[in-house]
Structure formats: structure tokens, C-alpha cells
Amino acid sequence: MSQDPPAALRIHADDSVAVALRPLGAGEHLLGVTLREPVERGHKLALTAHAVGDEVRKYGLAIGRATRPIAPGEHVHVHNCATALAGERAYARAPAAAVQAPATAATWQGYLRADGRAATRNEIWILPTVGCVGLTAEEIARAARERHAGRIDGVHAFPHPHGCSQLGDDLAGTRALLAGLADNPNAGGVLLLGLGCESNQLDALLAAVPEAARGKVRVLSSQSAGDELAAAARLIDELAAPIADAARRALPLAALTVGLKCGGSDGFSGLTANPLLGRLTDRLCAAGGRAILTEIPEIFGAEQALLDRAVSPEVFAAGADLINRFKRYYLDQGLPVSENPSPGNLAGGITTLEEKSAGAVQKAGQAPLASVIGYGAQATAPGLALLEAPGNDAVSSTALAAAGATLVLFTTGRGTPLGFPVPTVKVASNPALAEAKPHWIDFDAGCVLTAGTAAADAAFLDRLLAVASGAPTAAERAGQRAIAIWKRGVTL
């Protein structure tokens, strides 16, 4: 049954602040305090007095320290609260008890590949080795889409500006990322399109593609092909022939691999959308499926609880090393590890990186941390995987697809139109965004506050399974498909 949400919410009994669920005016009395000033929706109000240096607590965690005295009823934000994050940490493991998620018999209609993996789409992908042939790849894809319309789910090119003037680990990262995309089950066929003289040579890229996937891959060097457009058309026709007759079949929830992502977060993200994904993650992992969490800098400050769910000391150590390595990446550039949230996050009520992280990690629910994988690597073990990638929306979402995600679940409080190689399900944290941008948003998680978690969870699972079974996302309808590669090294 729908109900009116409260005016403000204290999330955890230990919290020293509450979140405004609507704009609040000075003089309003709620949760035992009288507001001393207006508080915008999604922003925080103090429930207790804070002296300078006192912890400000939300989600039951410290999200920063008071930088000046804060009285009950005051607005808490950047003017009186700041991060307490520093640099690397020595992590000590304190194993957390496993949480058993409810069983589900849910099924979806997907494509079962020869290697036993399941796909949510049956497409051909064109992956340029280098930026020089990116526009050529798009031209090839446009012609092939018309030629094969109705036979397969689509032909898509994914241009990028990299693949040349790169050295060492930087070039290896580009190669690993493209090889991972080539291995994604949603790509029933792949054309690796090269120029010929680039650093990212076709033979080395093909060798990086997992051996089991090489049968669905064709390669073309534009400089050697004569008429490269005609040659590419022949290769795509060859790739389309064996997959044109593929049919969807009923598959269990466990056959899904989902990527977990948030972008343009606001003060509601950690209350509605991210916990919604967390409960789905728990059910998926309990069923034997895979969920992939990334955006490592948006774990800083909330990592201990995640690491404590590691299934072994080795996984704990790998996760701790990844987080510290990422912090060192910042520190080596002379930058603070806490240079986050973004201007949009701040406007939405998020004050510190600790607060942003405490909300962001809720996408992973309470599932045990089963594996830790590097950038460009595949998530092969069932359960929750932690993937090396930054917080940038396009870079991290591309990395999720390269790790094997056949859906990306993307929560947002501010909104974004961009989609990625696999279906990208946009989940609004609040009804205002969902109402304003229905052409961007696939699900309104704000219903959690009115309909309750059980009804919201059921509706979200239905929507998720429909998309997995072929219903287009908002981004797919708009033709929003892109990749971005994490470039860390010098450019020659």
C-alpha cells in the first residue's frame, strides 16, 4: 500500500544526522529537534550537538568531522563538516557473518552461448584498435545494421581515441579492455578493425582475447585491405550467419552477470536506489549469479565493511591491496584521496567522500566478496567481484562490460543519458528525476519510500528481467552507446 513518506529520515540508530525527504523550513519540529534554518531535500540536519572535531554519523558510519560547533536542528554540509580521510591504511580482517538472501525461482529469456554463458543481446560489435579508424567503424556499423535488420539484435561500433602513442602498462590496459569486450557474451560476433601502423597491433590484441572466444572474432587491417568497407561488410556477413538463427530460451536468474554502477548521486541514492540494487545483488549472488562492483575511489571510507565480507584471507588481502594501490595512484600525483564528491553530488546533499562511499557500497548489498579482479580481467567466479576501475561513469561502465557484465545497473540522483555496450538500466533515486527525464530513466527507486521495499524489489526485478529478455532500455532507444578507456600513462 502506498503511503506518504516522512519529512526526514534517521537511517541508523547511531546516526547524529537525518536526511530531509522534502524541503524543510525553519521552525519545523521533527525527530525531536526544531529546525534552525531551511534544509533542502536530500540534505542533512543535525539531531545532536557536535563540537569541533566530533564525528558526524550517517548510515551508522562516520562520514566526516565537524569543523565548527553544530547545534541540533542546523543544516549539516560543507560549511560545517569535512572529510577525515587521509592516505593508505593497514587493514585488519574482522570476518562478517554471511547473510542468506531469499531464494527466487525467477527466469528470463536469454541467449545461451556455446561456452555455457548467457547473453541478454545477440549482437555484432566492431572494436577499433585505434582512434584513427573509429569513424570508419561507425560507417561500417551503420551499413551492416541496415543489411541485417531483423536477423540479429544489432551491429554496433565502439570508437575510442586510444591504441597508439601508448607505452607499457598503458598500452596493455587498452589491449586488455578491448579483449575483454570482445569476450562479452552479448557480442555473438566481433570485428577487430585496425589501421595497420598503430601501437595496438591486431595480432597482439587477438592473442589477448580468451582462446575460447576467438572463433567469433574476425580481424581487418584497413591499410592492407584495399576497399576496407567492402572487406568489413563481407566479414560481418560471415559473423552474422551462425548467430542469425539464435533464439531466446528460459534461463535462471543465476545465468545473469550484472555490473553495479552509480553516477550523479544525490542524498537519496544511499536511501533508495543503491539499497535496491543491494537487495537484488544479494538474491542474484545467493542464486549463483555474478555481480561486479567497481569505482574503487568511491569505496574510500566505507571499505572495511566490504572487505570483512571477503570469503578468504587471500581475497581480503587482494581487496585491501587494490584499495591502497588506488590511493597511492592519487598520492603519487600529489592529489588528496578525498577529492570527491563532484559539484552535482554536493548540490544533491552529499558532503564528503565518506558519505558518498557509504551510500555507494550499498549497491553490493551484504553478499560475500568472492573475488578481486584487475582492469580488463573477467569475473569468472560466482558471487560478488570487486573490479579495478576509477569512478568515472564511462570508464567504469566500460570496464564492467569488459569484465563480462551483460547488464549494467546504473543508479543516479541527478540523471545522465549515456549508455554503454551492454543494456544500461538507469535507476532514479527520486521521483522528481524519473518524472522530469522519462527518456533517460528505466525505473524510479523513489517508490521504496512510498510503496515499501518488498513492492519496490518485486517491481524492480520484473523490470530487470524484462530488459534481460530483450525489452530496450531508455539509452538503447536513444541510440546511446559508448565506451571509454582508462588512460594512465604518457602520450607519445
From TrEMBL:
<dbReference type="InterPro" id="IPR052172">
    <property type="entry name" value="UxaA_altronate/galactarate_dh"/>
</dbReference>
<dbReference type="InterPro" id="IPR007392">
    <property type="entry name" value="GD_AH_second"/>
</dbReference>
<dbReference type="InterPro" id="IPR048332">
    <property type="entry name" value="GD_AH_C"/>
</dbReference>
<keyword id="KW-0456">Lyase</keyword>
<dbReference type="InterPro" id="IPR013974">
    <property type="entry name" value="SAF"/>
</dbReference>
<dbReference type="Pfam" id="PF04295">
    <property type="entry name" value="GD_AH_second"/>
</dbReference>
<comment type="similarity">
    <text>Belongs to the UxaA family.</text>
</comment>
<feature type="domain" description="SAF">
    <location>
        <begin position="15"/>
        <end position="82"/>
    </location>
</feature>
<dbReference type="GO" id="GO:0019698">
    <property type="term" value="P:D-galacturonate catabolic process"/>
</dbReference>
<dbReference type="GO" id="GO:0016829">
    <property type="term" value="F:lyase activity"/>
</dbReference>
<dbReference type="Pfam" id="PF08666">
    <property type="entry name" value="SAF"/>
</dbReference>
<dbReference type="Pfam" id="PF20629">
    <property type="entry name" value="GD_AH_C"/>
</dbReference>
<protein>
    <submittedName>
        <fullName>Altronate dehydratase</fullName>
    </submittedName>
</protein>
<dbReference type="InterPro" id="IPR044144">
    <property type="entry name" value="SAF_UxaA/GarD"/>
</dbReference>
